[in-house]
Amino acid sequence: MLLHVDADDCHERQIDGIHRFLFAPSVSVAWLVISVHPLWKYLSHTMAMAAMLLGVVCIAAGMHWLERLNGGQSQISAGWLVLLFLVLTVAFAVLYPISLRHDVNSGSDREDALRVGLNAIRHHEYPYDAVTYLGNPITPLPGALFLAAPFFALGHVSWQNILWLALFFLFTVRFFRHRATALFFLAVSLLFTPAILGDFVSGGDYSTNFFYLAIAIACFCWSHNRALYLCVPAALFLGVTLSSRVPYIVALIPLLALTLQRTSGFRTAGLFAVILIAAAAVTLPIFAPHPIMRLLEQFGQQSSKLDFLPSMLHAEYTLPLLAGGVACCAFVVRMDLPRLFLIFSAASFVMMGPPVVSLAFNGKNEFSYLAICVLPFVLWALSQFERGTDASILVERV
Fold it and tell me: Mean pLDDT for the chain?
């Protein structure tokens, strides 16, 4: 018995070593990936290097603080989360009007893409024939247009960001075991990540898309074995959110693996039928009368990002297939929600990483596109970090 306890103690201490020396650097690298471009763009090279170094040091110090805080007997006050939400809301209220001074040489046209697309639909026109004020095509899929429509009707598409931010705060509080971890994640990923903060305060929906996708996945997983009046609406909502951006389709694979592990095959088939019906219901009518051809054209809009990859690779086919192969790893491991986010992060990086890196080597820094990959990865990393902290503290108390 004593040997068994000692072995368990050794194992838990190994976990403690991993979360000390692996998770902090990984979160720092994830932050750097999507922060390097705006810092390098708007600061001098010296200031940008100093800002990146400061960010890495602060993340490491913050995770040390987080470990000590989570080891205490009580949770931090929810007021800190409310304060962070108010800070982000005030930042939006102050900076959003400034972003409306459209400049063809700078700024983001993501909110304009939603506005232009929805305006075209209101006039019974095909939304993807329109362009934004920067001359870019409309890239959000019909699910994103559908979810933004109520706010478009109110006259301010960007207001959806505040709603989904508030719900994403609630999601993170439920996702993590400790409020301190949720506060750290939200502060690092939103407030102190220039690319995500800039997109949010300018009314863009790129990060907001992930907010409502993560919420929808969590609601769907929570409803697996509950009554139909709970699981069917969750499946419908998930189907709509999956139709917001092309890379989110790959999330269906680990989600299928998780659902099969938690409930029966018959119930899984029914729930996924509802998801696909919801996605088709918001997507196909927009692309009528030639839905398949127009859907392929919409997917083809992303082909310009593959221009610097060798043509012999046929990246438009091989990258999605490789991403699907990575996602299929979910069928050979025991799944939970954090692991789902990890596999989705890896699969989406396989699909998006090579074109983004090739663009960077050719002077087109688009690392902010990897926010889709980074946010779920950091969710997983911090969830494992706090689990490791809890395990090591439990061993010490025993």
Answer: 87
22's CB contacts (< 8 A; 6+ apart) are none
Max Cα separation, the chain? 75
CA pair distance 245, 34, nearest whole angstrom: 19
φ/ψ of 351, rounded to 5, equals: -80, -35
Q: When comparing pLDDT for 398 and 154, which is higher? A: 154
Q: Could you give the angle at the alpha carbon of 344 between the alpha carbons of 341 and 346, nearest 5°?
A: 110
Q: Which of 138, 159, 141 is nearest to 150 (CA)?
A: 159
- Could you tell me the pLDDT band of residue 391, with boundaries at 50, 70 and 90? low
**What residue numbers bound the domain in which 48 lies?**
2-397
Give me the residues paired with residue 106 across strands.
Answer: 103
Q: How far is CA 377 from CA 66, 308, 341, 344, in A?
A: 18, 26, 6, 8
Among the listed residues 114, 141, 275, 284, the one whose alpha carbon sits nearest the alpha carbon of residue 204: 114
Residue 202 in tokens = 């300018």
For tokens 């954090």, what's the residue?
A: 338
Residue 130 has pLDDT above 90, yes or no: no
Q: What's the total number of domains in the chain?
A: 1
Distance (Å, whole) CA 357 – CA 261: 36
pLDDT for residue 38 is more than 90: no
Residue 135 gets which letter from DSSP?
Answer: S
Q: How confident is the model at residue 3 (pLDDT cuts 50, 70, 90)?
A: very low
Torsion of CA 284, 285, 287, 290, to 10 degrees: 90
Find the mean pLDDT for residues 179-199.
94
Report the distance separating Cα 337 and Cα 374, nearest Å. 16
Mean pLDDT confidence for 134-158? 91
DSSP category for residue 354? H
Q: Which residue in the block uniquely carries the two structure tokens 């043509």?
A: 311
pLDDT tier at 145 (50, 70, 90 boundaries)? Answer: very high
Q: Which tokens in the block code for residue 141?
A: 């899929």
Six token digits for residue 170:
């609630």
